[in-house]
Amino acid sequence: MVQEIDENDSQAKITRAKKICEGFQSQSLQTRKQTYIDFQQFIKPENIELSDQELRVIFSETHIYFLHGLRDKSEAIREQAIKFVTYLIDERLPLHDFYLTYIFPIIVERIGTVELIEDSEEIRLQMLQLLNSIIIKYTNTEQLKPFLNDSVIIIAECVKDKYPLIKELSCQSVVLLSKALPREFHLQAETLLDPVLTCFSHRQYKVRVEAIKAVGEIVMHSSYKGVDKAMVPMAEKLFDQIPAVRQAVAQQAARWLLNHRDRYSYFHKMLPLLLTGLNDEVKTTRDEANQLWESVGLKYQTENEKDLKDKMDYLSDPPKNYPTHLKRPNLGCRVLVQRNISKLATALSNELMSWQDDVKVRCSQLLCTFALHAEADLTFNLQSLLPAMYSAAKDDNKVVVQNIVQAGQIIGLFVSYKTWSKIVLPVLEDGPHAGHLTVVSALIEGTPKGNISNEALEAISKLLAEDYICCSRKSKFQIELLSCVRSLSKKFDSNPESTISYNLFKIVTTLISLRSCDNSDIITEKLYEELAHSLGFTGKADLMISSANKLFNHLNNNPKLWTPISENACIFLTLMSEIDLALGVNLDIIGVILSEVLDNQTDAELRLKVFHSLTIVFEKYGGVLVNDEHFVGFLEKLITDIFVPSLVWHPGSTAEAIRTMSATCLRYALMLNERIELFSSTKVLEPLLQKLLLLLLSLMEDASCTSRKVAIECVTLIKNISVRNNVWCLDDFIRIYPAMLQRLDDPIEKVRLAALKSLSKIFTDVPSNFLEVTYKTHRELIVDTLMTHFDDDDELVQNLVLETLKVLAKINTSEMLRKIEIYRPLLTNQEGLNQIESFTQSIVCDS
Questions:
Q1: How far apart (Å, rounded) are the C-alpha atoms in residues 840 and 814?
Q2: Is 347 part of a structural domain of the chain?
Q3: Residues 6+ positions from 452 with CB-CB distance below 8 Å
Q4: What is the rounded distance in angstroms from the CA atom of residue 157 to the CA atom of residue 114?
């Protein structure tokens, strides 16, 4: 009897359910929608108690009605139908593939076909959510297996949907499906790879992140084809602007390295994806990547414990000279990279030469990481890596160059000099570019001081000091060559017999001489002091004394053929300007070069530059060298062989400038003669002075006012030398003073003043026979000329004339007193006349 009641009750429930479903056939939208609400209320457990069997019967009797709503023309009805079915699956129906048999075909029909059936984005999203609900509920059940193919078809189409939320949810569905059917998913995984990869380029980063996670799952269940297909798109996401995307790549790569069943076959492809994260711009990403990488290394170490036992027992301490600012990776990480570096090196070399800037940045960072992990095992891959490093080191992006330098330093630390020099030095011999020098400098910098001998440093420095290498005017090349010099000098152990100091001195001098405009603030004369300090010299002067002579001799190669832009000419001029106290020990070779360079047949512009450098030398060092016994011969040779021929008049502005500079140098030399005795032989001195006087008197008429002024000063100095050597004669005086007086009318004030200053010196110690009556006319001419200028508006001129007249008053007082009386009514400078008259009368009284 009880059983009949239960059956009657069940039938009544089924009848009631069917009665409610009649509303689904109504033409009214509102009625159909309300029917779903009513039906849901009916089956709620708080409203009615239904057994699994009763629910199965109700589903069998009514599904044709409520599932039809998923195809309804009204979007509102379809939405309500999805809500109802979702509730039915999630909350009420027990696990059974019977229900899914009716639901999946409709979902496939609506959102799983190439032709778009469901035109509402919101409905498509809700249907996909329904699918996810089914997958979650049926996870790890036999009932879901028959619908794996349908699920894959639906996800494959939805992941290509234009609606971002659908794309994002589709990628999540991939993950859900892989976890729901882990054993079966590998059969269909690769089918989803291509559709999911289309999301990698989506503008919304959340879609890209979910797509990366989906690919992570797919690869975990794929064969080698799927792995190969996924690697390049995943690598491209390492350049994504959004940190979360790059972080997702690192996470998935770590997961593969830890758990992929064939990971040992794919380590070389997966490693870059995680190792790139170690250098990410965002600290949180770097930190997480480091933690993941350490976990990978530890697991690899555990799995290969037998193979690594010796290293684990005996190589626990870091190598000597290991950088203190770097943390040494664990053994598993190092060995994992070392065993795959040969496969990684070729790909890395190719990417380092990419035209894409961001690719080069990431690859250069990855190179540093590989070098740090590979340590000495990188030796066998230098042949392929170094050319790529040379190329990348020339890049305009400073970050790339900095990474290459860091990688080079790490390689230098672990790879011996004997090894890398065999590869690098032949390249330098063939003619390096800036990239070569960048890498060489980094290798030297990274090599521990005790691991590179002075002989090795000499070999490198000698090669770099070759003219065809160091005589470059390229801006970047010069900077990198300077970097090599600094690296070499740091590793050098002081040794007086070593030639490295000369080699580096030559390079530095060449850099200073040929520096480009871009490097004018970097490559300066201060480099001499820096180099001297690095090599153990007390200062620049000691460095010059040690090395300048050898460089001068190297330069002495056909100086007559030099032009202003010749490398040797530029280096010579630099040495002359910076020679310091080393000038004295190099006078012989400098004299030989000067006699060649300053020959009248050589380039005029270069001669001008050399004369200018000589004036600087005399001004800076002349006073210091007066006690040098070689300096006298040096000056005599300059005067006779160079200065005198250069004073001869030639047409042209350049020739005019040469005369001026030559006369200036001569003036310095003659001034030094007051402290040292030049041309001690009268037979040599007298004809030389006569020749000089003729040239200087001619120069006093030169178009250049500077030439005229310097010529006046030189003539005055010659007069003093002649007096001291008793070769001062009346003929010379008679030739000189008219030219001097003529300069009092010079249009240039500095020339006039120079003439006035010199006249008082010229008229001092005049030859005695000039006082004879025969030369009265000369004496009167002199006084008359000076009196004419005694009324000059310039007080300085008046004072200089006064001083000269006082000198003349000592020659003949009576004539001076007579001239004063003659000019008193003619001149306005009565005070000056009174002063000279008073001075002259005092001479008379004293006598």
A1: 9
A2: no
A3: 417, 444, 491
A4: 7
